[in-house]
Amino acid sequence: MLGLGVGTVSAHEEYVVDDEREVDAAEFLADALTDPLVVGPLILGGVVVLAVVATYLAVRPFGRDVAAFRSAMGEYEPYVPWLLRISLGIPLIGAGFGGYFISPEIEVNLRLLQVGLGFGLLFGLATRLVALLALVAYLVGVAIRPTLLLQFEFVGGLAAIALIGGGRPSADHVLQRIAGTPGAMYARVDPIYDRARTFQEWIGEYTALLPVVVRFGLGATFVYLGLGQKLMRPGIALSVVDRYDLTAVVPASAELWVLGAGLAEVALGLALVVGFFTRASATVAIGMFSLTLFALPDDPVLAHVGLFGMASVLLITGSGPYAVDRRLARDGRTPTDVPAGDRTSATADEDCSSH
To answer: What is the dihedral of CA 60, 66, 71, 75, to 10 degrees?
Structure first.
């Protein structure tokens, strides 16, 4: 269980420490993976997780609870575009006024650009265009400063907004409603109403892929943070352990802290990418973010808002298509305590109710 405990704090290490230990990654991994006091708890933690998953799949408990939860989450689906817009718009505005570009590590003052894009997302005005412009700005920034990969969730989040549009409430929805009203003055001057409707009809066939886009964006971010900020760069992770005296919080070696956190992030990221227990994985992600904000007070809140929002979206939508959860739903045994009318919706914890 110790291996599980040390893997629950996830942070953008570069945001909370200035100095990095000079540690060779290969040497660190070789030493740590030959230490029984490091390997033992990690193996034990992995076995416990696998046992819990296997037991759940064999027994399929809480059928009614799962069905009720998924039904309740389904009621929030109309607000998913709004949730995404807020989750990406607020960090952009904060970055603009904070004097950095998306990541606190990139001290470049692009206030007008980021504040404009951020408010465009918040208001839902020309939402898809604004999201694409923000995505292009991010990708250009990554090409110049790869450190921006710390906020890789912006790729998945902005791509998801570009896919699904502004939704409601949004300025786009209001303007489109007015433009479609016969006799309205605005309808006479609106230049894009007909084109917008044609585009929406075309892209509507692909909006079911929204959970897939969010899964890949959030999962890839976790994998990068686990590999790039911990397993392949243990020096900076060890500095975080030293700064916050984490070995006193949980009686484990610094090596176990780093390996446990890194492996937990990689495993969670891969689970999200393949859509394995998606809602449960999203819940774990939210728990990790929340714990980080309390355990590491120097970790900037705005750096996590997009992550919170994307994990919350997956709680609402579930895995969507192209996910292991769908296979588990087809192959799984229907819980016997669920009424016949509810069995389809309760056979799997993670199957998305509407996608």
So the answer is: -130
Which pLDDT score, from 0 to 100, does residue 236 have?
Answer: 87
Q: Which of 155, 150, 214, 159 is nearest to 10 (CA)?
A: 150
* Structure confidence at residue 11 (pLDDT): 53
Burial 151-167 (b: 16+ CB within 10 A, else e): bbbbbbbbbbbbbbbbb
Do 268 and 203 share a structural domain?
no
CB-based burial label for 28 (10 Å; 0-12, 13-18, 19+): buried
Residue closest to 217 by CA, chosen among 300, 131, 292: 131
Pick the closest to residue 225 from 172, 274, 261, 271 (CA basis).
261
Q: Distance (Å, rounded) from C-alpha 111 to C-alpha 131?
A: 17
Structural domain contains residue 114: yes
Boundaries of domain holding 307 = 17-51+63-77+229-346
Determine the pLDDT at residue 329.
80
Name the DSSP class of 33: T
pTM: 0.86
Six token digits for residue 295: 């355990």
The structural domain count of the chain equals 2
The last residue of one of the domains, among 208, 239, 265, is 208
User: Which token pair is 196?
Assistant: 């917008």
